[in-house]
Give the backbone structure.
Amino acid sequence: MGWFLTELFTWWNGQTMGTRFYTWRKGEKVGTDEFGNTYYRTPDKHHTAGGSAERRWVIYNGYADASKIPTGWHGWMHHRTDTPPTQQDYKPREWQKPHRPNPTGTPLAYRPPGSIVGADERPRVSGDYDAWTPS
């Protein structure tokens, strides 16, 4: 019963009931990335023949966060390429780092020294500035 209410009322936690129904009815699975996100498209041929692009969408594994889409899939989702990464023999160059989702708002986020949420104490200010204290 809990999953039913979650799918009915939340869009950020996976798919909604409408997305599940549309995917079941019109979706063609294209592939899955290393994060577990599943990619779909409409197999209707009238979309490409009529001049409009086919519809492509992703069902996220967990919370919906667009930064969890790797580079190859991002290009396919935005119609920069017609070939999905599952049908390509892509090898990343040695200088390319592996994809990492945006860590903002997570414990992995960057916290500079002196930050409010950081563990360190703010460093002393250099120069001629002294904090005011009442006498």
In short: The chain has a mean pLDDT of 79. The longest strand covers residues 28-32. The chain is about 20% helix and 10% strand.
